[in-house]
Amino acid sequence: MCWALAAWLPAARAADDPAASRQAFGDVARVMQSPRCLNCHTATDFPRQGDDRHRHLQLIKRGPADMGSPSLMCFACHQTANSADGLVPGGPGWRLAPLSMAWEGLSAGQMCRRLLDKQRNGNRDVAALVAHMANEPLVQWAWHPGGGRTPPPLSQPDFLVSVRRWADTGAYCPK
What we know:
Blueprint: H1 2-8, H2 18-32, H3 35-38, E1 48-49, E2 54-55, E3 68-69, E4 72-73, H4 108-116, H5 126-135, H6 137-141, H7 156-168
């Protein structure tokens, strides 16, 4: 896929441009605040489901490794791809995002600052964040959710353009 390759190509570093960077992150935030992202980047001890973000119907708990309780792990139902009928979503390594990366209820600026916080984000610098958003299978799943689920408000290529623009103009956060 061209967009995945483009995410790995070195980009000419644009001059720091706080206004352009903040504007680009506004587009990034629209995606990150969509149900496809927020359902797993939740601040709760349980996953959410659906476009209305209701509590997981099977009353699943987060568990110690963000993969469900030992007696009912996420992968018991969520396989490496969506089920054939699309009702059960799936992707490689299906799990909740760690609580350190929960952005449910945060403003775009707060979410941006949390995203950049290496102590919360798995020690990722900006380049690693761009690579994560471009190549992580669970991030990519958001644009192929199946089961009548609404994908994020930007196309995946447009999202990646915004992520790169945010990074290349200084990775500034909205106030």
